């Protein structure tokens, strides 16, 4: 277990490349990894998870071109705040997302708050569970699921004041049992807004 005490840490391109690693912040609102002080022109993600069965929890990641990138299976991202990711214009060759999942299986994203240029992208990733997250004020798209990403489960999330809430070009489930998602631009009957 790697325990991070409350404070502001200026870091970028941190990599987890061993399996079964737990990174745990003291408090998600006060344990902050700030990418702005490291390299304002960096195209790296602040945290890269290139491992399996790891846990990242109780952190704020902010002021970076890219937030978290996952190339691995059975990882859990829990109670993370991702804010102001992709707000700086750089010469990066690919679009900036707060959280990117590539070629991965059975990861879980839960109880996170995402407020950036773009929220989450899935590419060629299957069996991903995305639930109990708040997607708010994302300037372009909150959740994008590209081709080759099937059998993912997206439910009990709040989509509020995003330019585009979601885009799905694969076959996925957007509900689980009685739980769907809250969309602030839904014109039908609305249920109470879940609070996480």
Order of secondary-structure elements: EEEEEEEEEEEEEEEEEEEE
Question: Strand pairing plus helix content: what structural class?
Answer: mainly beta
Number of helices: 0
The major pleated sheet works out as: 13 strands, parallel
For the termini, the CA-CA separation is 25 Å
What amount of the residues lies in strands?
A: 35-45%
Cα shape: globular
Number of strands: 20
Mean pLDDT: 91
In short:
With 196 residues, the protein is mainly β. It has strands at 2-4, 7-10, 14-16, 22-25, 31-34, 45-49, 55-64, 66-70, 76-85, 99-102, 108-110, 113-115, 118-123, 129-131, 134-136, 141-145, 153-155, 158-160, 164-168, 182-183. Strands 1, 2, 4, 5, 7, 9, 11, 12, 14, 15, 17, 18 and 20 form a 13-stranded parallel sheet that branches. It has a seven-stranded parallel sheet with strand order 3-6-8-10-13-16-19, with no helix packed on it.
Describe the structure.
The chain is mostly beta strands and 196 residues long. The protein is 0% helix and 45% strand. It is built from no helices and 20 strands. It has strands at 2-4, 7-10, 14-16, 22-25, 31-34, 45-49, 55-64, 66-70, 76-85, 99-102, 108-110, 113-115, 118-123, 129-131, 134-136, 141-145, 153-155, 158-160, 164-168, 182-183. The radius of gyration is 16 Å and the shape is globular.
């Amino acid at each position: 277990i790697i325990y991070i005490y409350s404070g502001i840490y200026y870091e970028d391109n941190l990599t987890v490349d061993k399996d079964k690693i737990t990174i745990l912040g003291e408090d998600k609102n006060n344990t902050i990894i700030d990418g702005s002080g490291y390299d304002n022109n960096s195209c790296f993600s602040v945290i890269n998870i290139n491992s399996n069965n790891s846990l990242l929890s109780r952190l704020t990641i902010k002021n970076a071109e890219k937030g978290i990138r996952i190339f691995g299976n059975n990882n859990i991202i829990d109670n993370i705040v991702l804010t102001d990711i992709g707000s700086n214009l750089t010469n990066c060759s690919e679009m900036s997302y707060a959280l990117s999942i590539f070629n991965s299986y059975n990861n879980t994203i839960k109880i996170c708050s995402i407020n950036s240029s773009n929220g989450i992208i899935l590419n060629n990733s299957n069996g991903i569970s995305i639930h109990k997250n708040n997607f708010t004020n994302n300037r372009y798209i909150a959740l994008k699921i590209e081709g080759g990403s099937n059998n993912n489960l997206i439910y009990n999330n709040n989509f509020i004041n995003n330019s585009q809430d979601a885009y799905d070009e694969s076959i996925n489930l957007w509900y689980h049992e009685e739980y769907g998602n809250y969309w602030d631009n839904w014109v039908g009957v609305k249920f109470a807004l879940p609070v996480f």
